[in-house]
Write a structure and sequence with these properties.
single chain; alpha/beta; Hypothetical Protein Mth938, Chain: A; four-stranded mixed beta sheet; 10 strands; about 25% strand; disordered N terminus
Length: about 150
């Protein structure tokens, strides 16, 4: 099957409704598209819709990589929790962290860790993090996002 036929088939499947993922980061990772980064369509009370696919829970995104992110609170956003941002190649120029309903201070160890890397850290509330991420993706920037779902 050609690449175009595969892409058309995937698009048709997505139009029937989003798939749901909700268990482990490995099982819930998916790579989409034929290249480049994917935008975030929206978020719901249960998760994020990315490229027509619903991820139930918090997510980490970089280029075509979409992973469930096991972090539940801002206090858990440690360098280890953001390991995906410093093991991908090439490293993102910017990592946007969406803290949920409001901007919160990340743990000091996380801020200190990112001072010593080539990745700039941007901390926002999740709705603004999504908007910023989508704009930077459209500009073709090397941007990653780690997003906590806003509470109702």
């Amino acid at each position: 099957m050609t690449e175009l036929a595969c892409a058309s088939r995937e698009l048709a499947r997505c139009r029937r409704g989003p798939r749901n993922f909700a268990s482990s980061p490995i099982e819930d990772s998916d790579i989409f598209g034929l290249g480049g980064s994917q935008g975030i369509d929206t978020y719901t009370s249960k998760g994020f819709v990315i490229g027509g696919v619903e991820y139930q829970g918090n997510v980490f995104l970089y280029q075509e990589l979409s992973l469930m992110w096991g972090v539940k609170t801002v206090e858990e956003i440690t360098p280890d929790a953001l390991v995906a941002a410093h093991v991908v190649d090439p490293a993102p120029d910017i990592l946007i962290v969406g803290c949920g309903n409001k901007i919160e201070a990340l743990p000091a160890e996380t801020l200190e860790f990112f001072r010593n890397t080539e990745t700039m850290l941007e901390v926002l509330d999740t709705p603004n993090a999504i908007a910023t991420y989508n704009i930077l993706v459209q500009e073709g920037r090397q941007v990653a996002a780690a997003l906590l779902l806003p509470s109702a």
